[in-house]
Design brief:
Layout (H helix, E strand, L loop, with lengths): L5 E7 H11 L5 H9 L3 E11 L9 H9 L3 E6 L1 E4 L5 E4 L3 H11 L5 E5 L6 H9 L3 E6 L10 H6 L2 E4 L4 H4 L29 H7 L12
GO molecular function: RNA nuclease activity
Protein name: NYN domain-containing protein
Pfam families: NYN
Length: 218
């Protein structure tokens, strides 16, 4: 890849979480950013996720706060609850439209789109970006059974990057796992204060968290 190419990352949070969970590793989002900064000029790094608004505390919030202060453009919207035909309560939080609109608007300003998702619904978006002269890489995996990436999306992409091959470069050291969303004395962190990105402890704690609330019915 040319070092002069303009790159934008588009991360489907729920899909990436499901993929890494299946592969059995956690993303280090600081390392992920550095990995693609080293491949060209990183114009934007978007992260999309739905949030359950009525919860007293959301375990994904520390990740969202850290990303927002450390080079990512975070896009969120509230989830919606509904009852299906069997009477079961479900939560829906699909961010496909938001991701697609941002990608199309940014297309004139980038050379390379990196899509972290295996959702086949994005095939038409990939094709639309390619018609505009943008090279598209899809990041997911085919090493699981069944594969986490839709075959039509993988075939449409200019390049497919298997997430299992990126573990050594963007994965988190298992020994570096932070305490589960609790303070040093077991209390929940105070979200009234914004995270301080220069604080090494906060970076270690929040910069590599995986979302817990993204396992939604999407």
């Amino acid at each position: 890849m040319s070092g002069q190419q303009r790159i934008a990352l588009f991360i489907d949070g729920a899909n990436l979480y499901a993929t890494t969970k299946t592969l059995g590793f956690d993303i280090d989002y600081k390392r992920l950013l550095k990995e693609f900064q080293g491949r060209g000029t990183l114009v934007r790094a978007f992260y999309y996720t739905a949030l359950v608004e009525d919860q007293e505390y959301s375990s994904i919030r520390p990740l969202i706060d850290w990303l927002d202060y450390n080079g990512y453009r975070v896009v969120t919207k509230p989830t919606k609850e509904f009852v299906d035909s069997t009477g079961r309560r479900k939560v829906k939080g699909n961010m496909d439209i938001e991701l697609a609109i941002d990608a199309l608007e940014l297309a004139p300003y980038i050379d390379h789109m990196v899509l972290f998702s295996g959702d086949g619904d994005f095939r038409s978006l990939v094709e639309a970006l390619q018609r505009r002269g943008v090279r598209v890489s899809v990041v997911s995996t085919v090493t699981t059974q069944p594969p986490m990436v839709a075959d039509e999306l993988r075939r449409q992409a200019d390049e497919f990057l298997d997430l299992s091959q990126l573990v050594s470069r963007i994965g988190r050291d298992p020994s570096d796992r932070p305490q589960r969303m609790m303070g040093e004395n077991g209390e929940r962190p105070d979200r009234s204060r914004p995270p301080q990105p220069r604080n090494g402890a906060l970076e270690s704690r929040y910069g590599i968290r995986q979302p817990q609330d993204d396992d939604l019915d999407v």
